[in-house]
Structure formats: C-alpha cells, structure tokens
Amino acid sequence: MPLTFKNILSLGAALPLLWATPGFAKAAAPVSEGLVLDRVSVVDVRTGKVARNRAIIIAAGKITRIAPAGSVRVGGTARRIDGKNAFVVPGYNDMHTHNLNAASPQTSLPLMLANGITGIRQMAPALPDMPKDSAGQPILPEDAPAVLSMPGPLFAGPAFATPEAARSEVARQSAAKVGFIKMVDQPQEAFLATVDAAEAVGLKTSGHLPMTVDPHDAVQHGFDAIEHLGPSISLLLSCSSQEERVRGMLRALPPAPVGIDFNLDPAKLARLLANPVLLSPPQSFAMMRGVLASYSEEKCEKFAADLANSKAWVVPTLTRLEAMNLGNSPALRTNTDMKFVPPASRTLWLAVGDDFEAKLNAEQQKTLADLYAAQLRMAKLFEKAGVKMMAGTDFGGQWIVPGRSLHREFDLLAGAGLSPLTILQMTTLNAARYLNREAEMGSVEPGKQADLVLLSANPVMTANNLHSISAVVRNGRYLDRKQLDALIARAAAQLQ
Questions:
Q1: Degrees (nearest 5) of the Cα angle 405, 411, 414?
Q2: In this structure, is the dihedral angle defined by the CA atoms of residues 220, 222, 224 and 227, taken in order, positive or negative?
C-alpha cells in the first residue's frame, strides 16, 4: 500500500481498533505475577469440545483470563509453564470420602492431590483430636485437596431413631452451621422427618436410603443425594415387578434393632464398617435373589426417568460396591496399591476378606456378585436417562485406596458403559452443580478457582486418559509430574 497522507490517516484511525482487539491487548500487557500455562488445550467439560493453543493466566488462586498461546508476555515474579499441548480440565473431586476420620489423613490427603483430586466431600465429622484452626476447621497439610463440605454427627443408631430426636438434631446441627446432614440408618418415619426438617432450614441431606423408604417418597420430601446406589437393593427394588409386595413385607416386619451404634469401641466399629455386607442376615440374601429374578427393564427405565426429573443426585461409588460385593476377590487382596494404606488397615482388610469367605457360602457370594452386576447396569441406565450423578469412592472402607480408588471408579464407570464425557463431568462440573458453586469451580474459565489437572491425552476420547496426569494446579500452585511422584513416594515411605 503506498504511503500517502490519506493512508496514514486511515492507519491512525485503525490504531484504536487494533489496541482493542483481545490478542493485541493481551500481548501488550505483561503478566507480572502468578502463573501462565502456555501452549495448552482447554477442555470444555460441558460439551467435550477442545480449544487448542491456549494460555491460561492464573493469579491469586484464580483463573484471570485465557488467551491465545504465545500471546502473553511474562515479567516480574510471574512464572511461565510450557504446557506442551497438555489437555487442561478442572481438578477432580472425590464426592464421598472419609479422609478426616481415616487412619492417616497426613498421607491420604497428599495421595489424593497427587492423583489429581483437588476437592473432597468429607462424609463424617473430623476426628476430635485432629488439629483445628481458630474457626474450628481442621488444619490440613499444604499438599491437600480442599474440603468442599462436611457434615455433623451422623444420623445413625438408636439416638436418631424417632422423628422427634431427628428433628431436634437437625435444628442443633443447623445452628452449628454444618455443611449437610449425613444419614446412614434410620426407620422410615425418622428418615422422612429428618429430610423434612433439613429441607425446612435449607440443609442438604445425603446418605443411605433405607429399604423401607420408597425412593419416590424420599425424593418428594427433598432427599438430595443417594449414596452407593442405595446401598444394596434400596434402589434396585424400584426395578422389581414385585416391588409393592416386597415393600409391604418390609414395612410389616417388627421393628429391627437400629443399625450400627457409632459409639462403639473404635476398633470394633472399624471392623464392622469395613464391609457391612457381612452384617446381612440370611433372609436378606433370599430377598436379593427375589429382587434380581423379578427385574423389569421397563420399570427400571421409568424409575430412572422419574429420578432424572427430580432434584436428587446419585453417587454410585462403584469402587465401594465392588469391594463389598466381591469382598475377597484376588484382585482386591493383591492390589499393589495397598502400600498406600496404613499397615493396620491392610491387616484389618485382609482379616475381613477372610471373614467374607468364612461367613458367606457359595450361593450367598454368587448373589452378591449378581447384585453388583445389576448395579453396574443400573449406573448405565441412569446415565441414559439423565440422572444427575457424581463420582465418589467411600475412601475409608475396605480395599479403598486414597487417590488411586477414584481412578478405579473411572475405570468401573467406563466398564459399565458410561461415556468419557459423563465420567469427566461426574468428577468436575457435577460436583460444582451439586454444591451450587458453579460460579467458582467445575470448569476451566476466567473467574474460576485455579484447581486444574493437566493430562497428556484427551479425556473425552477415552476415560483411560483421565489417568494421564502430567501436572496438577492446586489453588494456583503448580505441581509437575516430578513433584507429584515425590508426594506419592513420601506417603509410601511413611506407611511402610
């Protein structure tokens, strides 16, 4: 273009537009602090689409903006990381754990972080002797996920078996500002009274669904999150052509002793909780077989659609179901990841595995294996219907290894037929949605918390790529593969 007076004027008029374009403006403004993840691909967890050749700018633990790769100048104390075309997803969340009341939180928490877990939903109160800050919150190691929510004392045992006691405890926990109400084992009337009382004060309810309670009733009252697909046949019963008859029989039975007393000696309690299947009376196996034999796909599809249209969430914890229902399988006993649990836990788990063989006959073990296969099919059916689900492991139970078991959960979900995108959403976006924190977490976007996982392969192509962690960002702090491996090695050494 010839350099005439007219062209010079035209160029001058265009300069403000050039400065206003995002790429030009970002290139002109150096980043003086924080972190820049350059040359990365950002995975949209809502759609599965990938935005390639991006730079993620992080400051004060937040994603401040996302720019084209190579367009960001770095100065001051800022650090630029060459992402080497890594796929960036939000940090993983394990939405059912017992880290803070487990045997070794000082090792389990760093192990979770090293496996890409940047957030956990703690499902029981922290141990009383765990150090706490001035606000009464547990003091965590630096290398730890965030505790996203934590309940007060569990609604289990004789103390919470009446509606009056349940309502009183909900009021007490509401005043104490607990994260949610965790329910384990209550009679029908007490269960529904707990849900009603919590709903009235705006507290979420989560936990086990008693077999005496129709899931439709629980959800209609406002029950928020069903753990472990029931557990047992609590949800599968809604897929049985004999549902009404079986529920009628259950409700006609005389009141049974109320569940596990959580005030037991800790050693006895740990053994009971390692695999609660071993507490099942003989008649419960006959009921399981009857429900499995009367399974109706049509009825289950209708149930799944009803659940999808409710506000309820489901946390399958297939790892926990596998551990309970296949309780002494060689793959569980010889898992090389057992080195990441305390020696006392290994000893206990092996002993409880022996109990599984000693106390359950071949027919009972086959019934449990068939139940597990049906639960896997139910997980796939729930995905197809659009049921809201989250990923969790129930770390603290037998055979569940901190950090590694969430990756086992990914594999089991994939084996059940769930899509890679669904599994990715279950551990990222859906956790944010359940917690009503989508504005601050659950996706890789400006303004969100800088809790991220960098993967060497696209997780939307196959769930196996969720294992390919090359780095983790926790609250804006970058941990490369060497640092993550060091966390793992340190935990293993401490647990020898």
A1: 145
A2: negative
The Cα–Cα gap between 236 and 238 comes to: 5
Please report the sign of the dihedral spanned by the C-alpha atoms of residue 81, residue 85, residue 89, residue 92: negative
Please name the residues in contact with 327: beta carbons below 8 A apart, sequence gap of 6 or more: 275, 277, 278, 352, 353, 356, 368, 398
Cβ atoms within 10 Å, residue 263:
11
- Strand (E) or helix (H) holding 183: strand 181-185
CA distances from 258 to 190, 253, 397 (A): 11, 13, 21
The Cα–Cα gap between 410 and 421 comes to: 11
Strand partners, 181: 205
* Phi then psi dihedrals of residue 39, to 5 deg: 55, 55
Listed in sequence order, the residues at least 6 apart from 159 whose beta carbon sits closer than 8 Å to its beta carbon are 165, 169
DSSP 127: P
Going from the C-alpha of 237 to that of each of 223, 332, 348, 391, 466, the distances in angstroms are 18, 28, 32, 23, 33
pLDDT tens-place string over residues 368-406: 999 999 999 999 999 999 999 999 999 999 999 999 999
Residue 116 half-sphere exposure toward CB, CA atoms < 13 A: 24
**The pair of three-digit structure tokens given for residue 242, joined into one six-digit string:** 């004999």
Q: Give pLDDT tens digits for 140-183.
A: 988 999 999 999 999 998 889 999 999 999 999 999 999 999 99
Helix (H) or strand (E) holding 217: helix 215-221
As given in the structure block, the two tokens for residue 188 are 């029908």
DSSP per position, 242-259: THHHHHHHHHHSPPPP-S
Query: What is the rounded distance in angstroms from the CA atom of residue 314 to the CA atom of residue 308?
Result: 10
Q: Which of 304, 287, 306 is nearest to 296 (CA)?
A: 304
Helix axes 420-427, 404-415, angle to 10 degrees: 140
Q: What are phi and psi of 430, to 5 degrees?
A: -70, -35
Considering the entire predicted model, what is its pTM? 0.93
Using the Cα atoms of residue 178, residue 184, residue 187 and residue 191 in order, give the sign of their dihedral: positive
For residue 89, give Cα distances in angstroms to 338, 443, 456: 28, 7, 11
